[in-house]
Amino acid sequence: QVQLVESGGGLVQPGGSLRLSCVASGFSADAYAIAWFRQAPGKARERILCISPNDKTPHYGDSWKGRATASRDSAENTVYLQMNSLTSEDTAVYYCAASRYGWVATCDAIAEFDYWGQGTQVTVSS
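Request: output the structure for the sequence above.
Response:
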């Protein structure tokens, strides 16, 4: 059964950093496109980054370049999101998602993702 489980969220001070984890099961994350999204109440869902085996490098949202870093541990089938310089505007639920078409498409060509985790809450506050 395909499953994605996020972890690593919590309370962080403004200017701080944290790393979120997305553990995949039922499939190899190396063969799928994996993306991180976030959604805050009253705001549209935003894609933070995407990793695809068909891309040479991770694709970052323009507003996230320089403060978001993607990485993966293939042995543990886990994808990470490192976020820095967090502000209160970063408070949201963060999700990871996967697409089975990542092997044959770049991240920019993937409009919808097949599988989603339940999300992990990130709260940036003093």
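The radius of gyration is 14 Å.
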